[in-house]
Amino acid sequence: MSLKSRVAAFPAEATAVMRRPMFREGLVDAVPMAIGIAAWGLVAGVAMAKSGMGMPMAIFMSIVVYAGSAQIACLPLIAAGAPMWVVWAATLCVSLRFMAFSFRYRPFFMHLPRRRRIACSFLMGDTNFALFFRRFSEPLPGREHVDYFLGSSLSTFGVWQVSIITGIVAGHGIPTAWGVGFAGTMALLALTCTQLHNATTWIAAVVAGCAAVAAYALPLKLNIIVGIAAAVAISVVAGRLPARAGREP
Fold first, then answer.
1. 195: helix, coil or strand?
2. Phi and psi angles of residue 198, each rounded to the nearest 5 degrees, phi first
């Protein structure tokens, strides 16, 4: 099929997907998350506006990058004139979780063509990841899990773009006294708590928080990297403990 034919057929295919029950179910399940996503997107947009980045570039970045935590992590570094390797390292560390997400998603999407898998990977996010694995514990035949993923992720993507662009446009017009930043932080904290399923994840989260606070005085927001490294180290050690215990007499 030629590119022109694919473009012409896209509206009909998109309409057919949106009519499927699992797409609508994913869409509805993502609605309760909209308030937290909107708060965090507004915070990210205001931060981008106040960083000195021009509005066209900020909007372009919000659409292309689609990673709020990475954007917030790299903006102070860019504004402070940090070396590019520091910006890349911070962004990489913050975004490493998407690699773990990809491994979890692989059994559900490995039957799709590569270009579709790449397109789906762009839509990955924390909220739709939590929703997806709350809904599906193992791969199902057919397209149910793909439809559900698209419904929840497109809903999240839409809310995020509207809120972050609103924050960019509003910029300095939103007073600091409104506490929007705190609302976004609380939204992320609530999302993090939904991912703490066992003792290991709780310990890793507490250690990461303590390490980040202890290293707060480090320049260029390097305390973020310290916290991430501490959480990864704790998780690796905890993962090896059962195996060692099993080998002991």
1. coil
2. -150, 180
CA distance 129 to 84: 30
pLDDT tens digits, 27-80: 888 888 887 788 888 878 887 887 777 788 888 888 888 887 787 777 777 777
How many other C-beta atoms are found inside a 10 Å radius of the C-beta of residue 193?
A: 10
Q: For the chain, give me the number of helices (H) and strands (E)?
A: 13, 0
Residue 173 and residue 170: Cα distance in Å, rounded? Answer: 5
pLDDT of residue 188: 64
Give 85's contacts (C-beta < 8 A, 6+ positions apart). none
Question: Over the stretch 102-159, which tens digit does the pLDDT of each residue have?
Answer: 888 888 888 888 888 888 888 888 888 888 888 887 776 666 788 889 889 999 999 9
166 conformational bin, left if phi > 0, alpha if psi -120 to 50, beta if neither: alpha
Q: How far is CA 124 from CA 27, 85, 95, 214, in A?
A: 15, 25, 11, 31
Q: What are phi and psi of 208, to 5 degrees?
A: -60, -45
25-36 pLDDT tens trace: 888 888 888 877
Q: How far is CA 182 from CA 40, 186, 187, 189, 234, in A?
A: 9, 6, 9, 10, 28
The gap between the terminal CA atoms of the chain, to the nearest Å, is 63
List C-alpha distances in Å: 213 to 8, 17, 87, 221: 53, 46, 20, 11
